[in-house]
Every structure is written in C-alpha cells, then in structure tokens.
Amino acid sequence: MTSIAPEAPEAPEAPEAPETPEAPEAPEPGPSAKHVQKPALVRYRPTGLDTAPEVNELLDRLGLGPLLPEGLTGFGGRNDNWAGTTSSGTRVFVKTVARTADGDSPELARTLAFEQLAGQLPAGSPLRFPEHLGSDVANAVSAYRLLPGARSGAEVALDGHFDEELCRQAGRAVATLHGLDPHGVGLDSGEAPLPPLSWLEAFPWSQLQDRSMAQIAAWKLVQDDAQAVAALRLLRSRERAAPHTPAHCDLRFDQFIQHGGQLYLCDWEEFRIADPARDVGAFVGEWLFQATYTVFAPTGDKDAPAPGFDLDHAEIVARGAAGLRRHLPKIAAFWQGYLELRTPDAELPERAVGFAGWHLYDRLIATAQAHATLSPVARAAAGIGRTLLLNPAGAVSTLRLDLPSGSPR
Question: What is the pTM of this model?
Fold first, then answer.
C-alpha cells in the first residue's frame, strides 16, 4: 500500500486577495439546516455590457429582454460572464467562450454537443445541470437559467460542507455522464490536451509571455523528473488503449454548483469522448489538493487544523496525512455513488489514480499563475502527485477505489 504524504515545503506565501466582489445574494432555504444561511457564489463586477452588445442581442432573440443594470454581477473564471435579471423578469447567467482566429469556437461546439446528448436523460436523472436557454454560435455566447442562491462546489468544499452525501451525488452524476450513448451525436473525439506531452521535453517559446515565473518553475519541476515524465507518457498510452465514454474532462470543484442541497454540473467546454478515468481521477485529485491546502491555509472546516506556518517536516507530513484521512470517506462516497450506476473496466481505478497524480501537478501549475515563486502548497501537491504517478496500483486501496469482489477483470 502506498503511503501518501507531502514533502517539506518552503515558508508559505500570504494568500492572494480576491477582486472586489459585489454583495452576495442570500441563498434560498434548502431541505437541510446545513444548507441554509450560507453565502452565495462570490460575485464580481462583470465586463460592461456596452463592450459586449452580443449578450443582450442574444437575450432579445430568445424573447427574454435585455439584462437590467440593477444587481448585475458576474462570477470568477477565465471567461466573461454576467448574472442578473432581464427586463422580462427572467434570471439568467450568460457567458462567452473562446474563439479561434477564424471565428470558430470548439469550446461552444463541445458544449452544444453535450446539450444534444443530454436530451436522452430522463426526468430526475442524477446528472443535473443548469437549463440551457440558447446560444449565439457566431459570437460564442450562451445563456442559462440562473439558480438563485447557488454556491460553487469550491466554496462548499472550503467551508467544510462538501459532505459525503454530496460526494455520492457527484459520483452518481459522473457515472450517469459516462453511461450516455454517444451514437448519433457528433462528439469531439480528439485527444484531451492535458498533459501536453511535447511540453514534457521543452516549454514552447510562444507560451512564455503568458506564464508566470512560478508556472515556468512548475513545468521545470516536471521536466527535470525523468521518472515523472515516463509515468505521464505511460498514463497517456494506457488512456489511448482504454474504453472511451462521454466525459467532462475538466472536472473540478468549481464546475459543480450546489443549489437546494443538490449538485449540478456545468462548464462543458472540454466535453468529449475520452477515458472516463480522467473524471474519476480529477475528483480524487481535488480532495488530495484540498488535504494539502488545509495544512497551510485556514478554512471554515471546524475539524481542520490551524494554518501550518513555521512547521517542520514531521509536522507537515502529519498534518497532510490527517487531512487525507478526513477526506478519504468523501472519496469513498463518490466511488460508491459511481459504482451504484456503472461498472467500470478493471483498469480504471489505476488509471484514475494516475490522473489524480496529474491533477495535482495541473493544480499547482494553475495556482502558480499569479506568483513569482512556487508556493509550499504547490510543492507539497507535486510530491503527492509524483507518488501517485509512479505507483498508481499501490494507491488504489489507499484512496478507496477498489472494485467490488467478483468484478470482471
């Protein structure tokens, strides 16, 4: 059985301050007291609609009327977005996605492919997602019905309320997604872009200007580790040989929304036919990153230790192990929910552990964007990710991803 513990990091950096948010809405009461009186999604001032006339043009074409300026806000993320009420009284969330130089938008095409495929889902399906109201393909803009009082899964996890029941819901949702029949729908079958194998040899010169010094250092951390590089190449080789299904391919806590005690999954820009182990591993990797993060930063979880500043190696390892023990039941609940609705191929757990390892590297690269040096969280996450990549079979049982006895092999 593999032991998973972070390596000793450097002194921690101060946490980044977020942009100035608008006042959050009060959430609607849910069925359980632990889901009420929590802050809604953190809101930000969105890009001015005068610079994005296509937003109200789409809403007008949908018969909803333009967004009212009163109470107009946005959520975090790499894409421009707006949340508010239209002149018809409809509450909407509108977002743009990237376009290529020739005006196409593969991200929107993948999103619309999901909407088409999801049409086969029955009422009451475990896979819930915000209602798609319509899209402007030419301008890569989409409108969705806004879930009032909804909270990002990332916020729910940080305050300690992403509990085992929500994890089981997540497992059932992901299993339902992987069980959809893709025949007759033009899904993207291209290889998922991450990890980019060519970047394991050398960082592209064209990408340097868009990367922070910490991100470059993170990539160097991978490139200088011959064993990690070999393990990532093997993982991608195993991925190509694995059975493929519809898959989200960008699964993180912030792609989930909690509303009224239920989980919704959103943001389908990377949706495609792929190895389902990607989604399973990403969810596991999120909890491993969370366990690492709580060593160095405070959360709302009353059972989490105080921030771990000025700790020695033994204390860091002990705190990391304690965090992992707290989150293992949540990983087990996710896997239980998944197995309730789907029987995976026999090698999926090992591949999922490998993708969990990659997910930790991916998170350290993403969180390094605004920094000049790698944070202690990043270095600790890299140590855990490396352990998983090099010996995925040894961590399957540790991470509670065992298949039931009698499963076909």
Answer: 0.84
